[in-house]
C-alpha cells in the first residue's frame, strides 16, 4: 500500500467523483488507513476536448501537463485520468513527468484482447474528440460506431449528463445507443467515455460491456499496489 | 467562479467523496467549466483522530498542516476539511497557510444559531475524538449526547461505515441513535461526523437534522464564489 495515486480530473467533475468512488470500492480496505492516498486535481477548466479536436478551443495538452507536474510535485507516484478524450494528449502528460501515467485507452485495449479475443466487431460509445483522435481504432479490428445522426444525439446526452441528468430517461437513452451498436453486430461494447457508466451498467446491454472507468480503476490499483 | 477549493480529505475517504459529490450537486452548473476547480489531498494515513485524542496515536496537527501547505502551493485559494474530529487541529492548519480555512464546526454553530435560535437542547452524534476535544460544546447550550454504552456502539458503527457498510441495517442503527437523542429531549440533532450522512437523511429523524457535511458545502461554495 505504498503508491500515491494522482488523478487528472474534472473532465467532467462527476466522472472524477465516480472514478474515486469506484477506486475506494475496489480497494481491499477495512479501515481508513488501508486506502491509498489520492491526490486529485479536479480541473473543469481544461479546454474542451471536443472543441479542441474541432479546432475551436486551445489544445488541452499544456494544461494537462501542468496538472501532471503539480500532482507529481505533491507526491503522486503514478497518474490516472478518468477522461477518454483527454487521452489524445497522453504524450504531453508523459513528457511532463517522471512517474508512470496509466492510459485507460491502452488498458482497455489490453482488457479487450484478454477478455474477448474472438470479438472482431466491437461497439464504441465515445465522444467526438475521442473518435476524431482515433484513440481506440488501433484496438478495434472492426469498430461499430453510431450513425452520424445518433452520434449527435449521443453528444447531446453526454452534455446533459455533465449538467447533472442521470434520470431514468437518460439511462434509457444510453441503453438505446448501446442497443443500436449490438443490433449492428457488436460482439462487445466499450463504454469509451467516463460519463457513460454514470447512467449505464452491464445489465443494460445485451452484449459484454467494458467500462473504461472500471478498467482504469483496476489498472491503477494494480500499479499502486506494486509500488 | 474564481475560487480554487482545497480539500483536506481522507478522514475517511468515502466521506471525502461524499463531500465532493455534494459540492458538485450544490454548484449552479450546466457545463464542466461552470464548476470550481477542486484540489484534493485524500490522505487516509493522517493519524487516527480518536486514538490521538486518547493519547494512543501521534498528533495529526503537523500532517494536516503539511497537507494544507501542499494544497496552497498547488493553487488552492480556500480550504475545507470534511472531518469533524480533525477540526481539533484547526489552529495548526490556520497557522500553516495564508488562505482561509472554512471551519465546519464554526459554520455549524452559525447555522444552529440562525436556523434554531430557540433550541436549547441539541443532540450531537459525534465520535469520541470530537467529544474529547469539546469542539461543539461552545455552540450547544445543553448538549444531548448518547449514553456511554450507546456511544461505544455508535463508534463501532462509524468504523463499519468506514469499512464500506452502508446497508439498510447500518441505516436503521444510525436512525436509532438519532432517535435516542430525540427521545432524550433534543430539539435538533447535529450529524457531527461526516460518516453519519452516508447512512442518515433528514427524513430518518423526528427532529431537524443538521448535516455538518452540507453546512460545510454551503459555506465553502459561498466563500469560493466570493473570490
TrEMBL record, chains A, B:
GO MF entries: isomerase activity
Cross-referenced InterPro entries: Asp/Glu/hydantoin_racemase, Asp_race
Highest taxon listed in the record's lineage: Bacteria
Signal peptide: none
EC number: 5.1.1.-
UniProt cross-references to Pfam families, sorted A to Z: Asp_Glu_race (PF01177)
Record has Isomerase as a keyword: yes
Class of the enzyme per the UniProt entry, highest EC level: isomerase
Keywords of this entry: Isomerase
UniProt xrefs under PANTHER family: ASPARTATE-GLUTAMATE RACEMASE FAMILY, GLUTAMATE RACEMASE
NCBIfam families: asp_race
Name this polypeptide is given: Amino acid racemase
